[in-house]
Amino acid sequence: MVQVPILMPQLGESIAEATIIKVLYKEGSPVEADSDLIEGKTNKAVIRVTSPGTGSLSQLPVKQGHSNPVGAIVGYNE
Q: In the predicted model, is pLDDT for residue 12 greater than 90?
């Protein structure tokens, strides 16, 4: 099965990273396209990282409290 990377989205021109405040699914969980997977926080807003497609989360290695740069792979959808 093909693994599709889940990326930290572009959050604005001056935002370079977001801190994970909540992981909403566990690895192996089934997900629908555009489901919210992760909540993150920048110094300006709370953001949501969504599933790129329907399938299951094969990897979701992010941890609460850790920062991730824009464009970083925060998991894989299978």
A: no
